């Protein structure tokens, strides 16, 4: 895939990932990174290819409003996760409406072979996206006719038309965030790395489809303003784990009342604010147990527990075993 980056003054350059998404890798996982450093921005595009799957992590910092154009000779079935920044697809439309992409959102998209697919990115901020590509044959084999919500999507894909599994991007939930972090920070090698990626990507797809399926049930609709404020609250929670905000502080920070924060957060992210903080801390503890030599007391302290016994009790409530048992297997 090639990317052409153009600032508002029409100055441009290109950088390219040479991985062919439908190639069969010789190694269990084939990886390549392309970087650029320019007057109006800098960035990195990391590709990982394995059988039936490919993912690309794009991490950009752009000094000013910028157009990023992608060129692909192949169709793309894409699980898209917008982790930081906001951008706009002027030409990609679902139900005749352009598809804007906000921070902390995801969708399942299909792009026919294209010479120019461009997005407009806001300037003076970081833009980070994870795109996971599955082959059409593999994706279709997973769903077939067993997921009726995908019928229109599969029809458009077969006709080589742009398609979105949902008419607008949905909020990335806490469990999705943990899986994404696993994928981006995996330190396994060889076949174990491939299996690790595959397992988490399939679980991510399951969570996406589960969320889409759940939207068919009647719920109290949140306004666009409320959704944006709640997504901001989620970002603040994730980036202030050492000193978490109280509910009143968080509500004031994002500009909504406490009732709407608590109810809306649970509706949008399928977890309470403090439940989300708890899950992130426990996942961090699990990773430290499995991947470091730190003592249980040290790990408890790192994730914010002053008492190792209280930490062990909380960990068992989350994972069904004591920290010491997880470490020893």
UniProtKB/TrEMBL annotation:
Domain HTH araC/xylS-type: from-to ranges: 231-329
Pfam families in alphabetical order: HTH_18
Coiled-coil intervals: none
Highest taxon listed in the record's lineage: Bacteria
Origin species: Fulvivirga imtechensis AK7
Protein name: Transcriptional regulator, AraC family
InterPro entries associated with the record: Homeodomain-like_sf, HTH_AraC, HTH_AraC-typ_CS, PchR_regulatory_protein, Tscrpt_reg_AraC-type_HTH
Keywords: DNA-binding, Transcription, Transcription regulation
Lineage: Bacteria, Pseudomonadati, Bacteroidota, Cytophagia, Cytophagales
PROSITE patterns assigned to the protein according to its UniProt record, in alphabetical order: HTH_ARAC_FAMILY_1, HTH_ARAC_FAMILY_2
One MF annotation (Gene Ontology) recorded for this entry: DNA-binding transcription factor activity
């Amino acid at each position: 895939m090639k990317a052409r980056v153009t600032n508002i003054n029409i100055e441009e350059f290109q950088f390219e990932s040479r991985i062919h998404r439908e190639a069969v890798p010789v190694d269990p996982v084939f990886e390549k990174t392309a970087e650029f450093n320019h007057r109006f921005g800098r960035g990195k595009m990391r590709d990982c290819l394995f059988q039936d799957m490919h993912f690309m992590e794009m991490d950009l910092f752009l000094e000013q409003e910028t157009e990023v154009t992608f060129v692909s000779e192949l169709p793309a079935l894409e699980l898209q996760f917008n982790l930081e920044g906001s951008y706009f697809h002027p030409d990609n439309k679902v139900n005749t409406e352009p598809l804007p992409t906000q921070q902390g959102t995801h969708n399942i998209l299909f792009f026919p072979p294209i010479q120019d697919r461009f997005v407009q990115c806001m300037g003076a901020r970081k833009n980070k996206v994870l795109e996971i590509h599955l082959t059409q044959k593999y994706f279709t084999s997973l769903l077939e006719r067993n997921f009726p919500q995908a019928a229109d999507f599969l029809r458009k894909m077969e006709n080589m038309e742009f398609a979105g599994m949902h008419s607008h991007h949905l909020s990335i939930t806490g469990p999705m965030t943990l899986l994404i972090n696993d994928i981006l920070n995996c330190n396994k090698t060889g076949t174990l790395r491939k299996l690790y990626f595959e397992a988490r990507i399939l679980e991510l797809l399951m969570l996406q489809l589960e969320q889409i399926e759940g939207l068919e049930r009647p719920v109290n609709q949140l306004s666009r303003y409320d959704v944006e404020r709640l997504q901001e609250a989620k970002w603040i929670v994730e980036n202030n784990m050492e000193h978490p905000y109280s509910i009143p502080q968080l509500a004031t920070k994002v500009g909504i009342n406490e009732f709407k924060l608590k109810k809306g957060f649970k509706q949008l992210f399928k977890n309470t604010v403090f439940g989300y903080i708890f899950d992130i801390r426990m996942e961090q503890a699990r990773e430290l147990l499995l991947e470091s030599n730190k003592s249980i007391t040290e790990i408890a302290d790192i994730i914010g527990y002053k008492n190792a016994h209280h930490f062990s009790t909380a960990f068992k409530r989350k994972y069904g075993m004591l920290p010491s048992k997880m470490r020893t297997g």
